[in-house]
Amino acid sequence: MARTILTDAIWEKIEPLLPPQSGCWGRPSKSHRFVLEGILWIFRTGAPWRDLPEEYGPWSSCYNRFNRWSAKGIWQTIWQALQR
Predict the structure, then answer these.
(1) At what angle do helices 32-45 and 59-71 cross, to 10 degrees?
(2) Is there a domain that residue 58 lies in?
């Protein structure tokens, strides 16, 4: 199992800021927390997306969710909430 970064306390602050958890294409999606751990692994290591360990699921799922959240301004909201 991959090492986790998010504590339960931090996750409780972040979870309400994320869009509803649902699969867009008719199949269940990975949990936001699981995908966020993968995104944070990329941030922490500086590795290319394609080098994301398989433990976090397909690299493209993390990459696509990162991009969607960026376009919607969700990252800015998260950073502001964590700074408070």
Answers:
(1) 90
(2) yes
The residue segments making up the domain with residue 72 are: 31-84
- The residue behind tokens 């990162």 is 66
DSSP letter at 30? P
**Please, where are the H alpha helices in the chain?**
8-14, 32-45, 59-71, 74-83
List per-residue pLDDT tens for the chain, 84 residues long: 456 788 999 999 999 999 888 755 666 678 899 999 999 999 999 999 999 999 888 999 999 999 999 999 999 999 898 888
DSSP state of 26: S
- Determine, yes or no, domain membership for 56: yes
**Residue 50: Cβ within 10 Å count:** 8
